[in-house]
């Protein structure tokens, strides 16, 4: 029993660590733009929906002997056409994520050096891109332990910032009129909550530790609920303090409200986390192109380096809109793919008995329609 508990919390930590990323930084700004109740609704709503998605994906992984990424599962069960759509979504998703880190990295770099050397944000993005490109080319990496340590300290510091913000906050800020639609937070919240990439790794962990794969069910539930709670506390605490001064990256608007040293420490550690995440994401993209698309390393590296700055150069420079589009469009496509593959398994393998979750066939259609209709509205209102 003690071993089972340890594995359970290891799995929860893996899922929580995958979910909590750059996406949560924009949530206080989302509260400013759309209001507290819409953001709370989408956090709770997607907390439930994404939990189900994680369990459906776990069932797909368990039911399929071969190891795939999501496009591979789509191809195996739905055919070549849907697989090409899933591949396109995957590629745009990983480069979109890299561009998010690039834009955030440039923004935090600008804020950090502003007292000594004020520079435009566009130049800060280019400087950040050049420095991280050198790291990618030189293979100068950051160990997973250092990355985990930075992430842990950063999240802890954000918890402190949230706690201090609550003491400096006021409920009057929640009466600030919203400037955007109820659907504005849709893509932002959905993007921030999805952690499907961790599901296959958690299942490998369970098998390695000789635990039943059904343990993924409580892991998926707890591992998704924790980020929902963390996001809600962070978003509402920051907004209660900064109100109409809430900035897109959440921290700059706290100047003069919380101690200055806390603002600087949070900016610095968040910047370090973005650096390590950008590098890790870039390496993942290079390895994906090499192993999954049989691309030579030099071309894979050049593509990983060049495409984000090209996208920035053509005018994609608003990370809030970018996250909203990624969540509304690409995460919606991936969610629909998971639902359709799960449905196909039940049809193609009638003898298979679900080991994680048994969702009735009739429930899959309205579940898919929620993502389809919501994704369209979320996309329209995130622009």
TrEMBL record:
A GO term from the CC aspect: membrane
Coiled coil: none
Topological type in the membrane: Multi-pass membrane protein
Domain (Amino acid transporter transmembrane) ranges: 5-374
Pfam families per UniProt: Aa_trans
Molecular function terms from GO: L-amino acid transmembrane transporter activity
Gene3D superfamilies, A to Z: Amino acid/polyamine transporter I
UniProt signal peptide: none
Domain of life: Bacteria
Descriptive protein name: Amino acid transporter transmembrane domain-containing protein
């Amino acid at each position: 029993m003690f071993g089972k508990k340890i594995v359970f919390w290891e799995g929860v930590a893996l899922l929580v660590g995958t979910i909590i990323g750059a996406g949560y930084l924009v949530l206080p700004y989302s509260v400013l733009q759309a209001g507290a109740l819409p953001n709370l609704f989408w956090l709770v709503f997607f907390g439930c929906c994404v939990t189900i998605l994680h369990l459906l994906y776990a069932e797909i992984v368990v039911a399929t002997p071969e190891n795939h990424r999501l496009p591979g599962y789509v191809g195996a069960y739905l055919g070549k056409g849907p697989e090409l759509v899933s591949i396109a979504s995957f590629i745009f998703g990983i480069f979109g994520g890299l561009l998010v880190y690039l834009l955030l990295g440039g923004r935090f770099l600008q804020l950090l050096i502003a007292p000594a050397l004020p520079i435009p944000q566009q130049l800060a993005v280019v400087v950040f891109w050049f420095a991280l490109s050198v790291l990618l080319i030189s293979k100068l990496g950051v160990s997973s332990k250092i990355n985990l340590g930075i992430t842990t300290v950063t999240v802890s510091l954000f918890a402190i910032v949230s706690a201090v913000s609550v003491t400096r906050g006021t409920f009057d800020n929640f009466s600030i009129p919203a400037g955007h639609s109820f659907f504005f937070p849709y893509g932002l919240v959905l993007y921030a909550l999805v952690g499907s990439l961790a599901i296959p790794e958690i299942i490998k962990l369970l098998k390695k530790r000789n635990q039943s794969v059904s343990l993924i069910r409580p892991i998926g539930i707890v591992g998704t609920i924790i980020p929902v709670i963390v996001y809600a506390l962070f978003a509402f605490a920051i907004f209660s303090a900064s109100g109409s001064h809430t900035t897109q990256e959440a921290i700059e608007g706290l100047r003069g409200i919380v101690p200055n040293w806390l603002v600087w420490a949070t900016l610095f550690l968040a910047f370090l986390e973005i650096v390590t995440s950008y590098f890790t994401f870039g390496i993942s993209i290079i390895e994906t192109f090499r192993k999954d698309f049989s691309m030579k390393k030099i071309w894979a590296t050049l593509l990983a380096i060049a495409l984000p700055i090209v996208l920035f150069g053509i005018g994609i420079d608003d990370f809030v809109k970018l996250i909203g589009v990624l969540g509304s469009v690409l995460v919606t496509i991936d969610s629909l793919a998971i639902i359709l593959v799960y449905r196909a398994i039940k049809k193609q393998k009638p003898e298979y008995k679900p080991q994680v979750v048994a969702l009735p066939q009739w429930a899959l259609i309205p579940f898919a329609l929620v993502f389809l209709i919501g994704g369209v509205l979320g996309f329209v209102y995130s622009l």
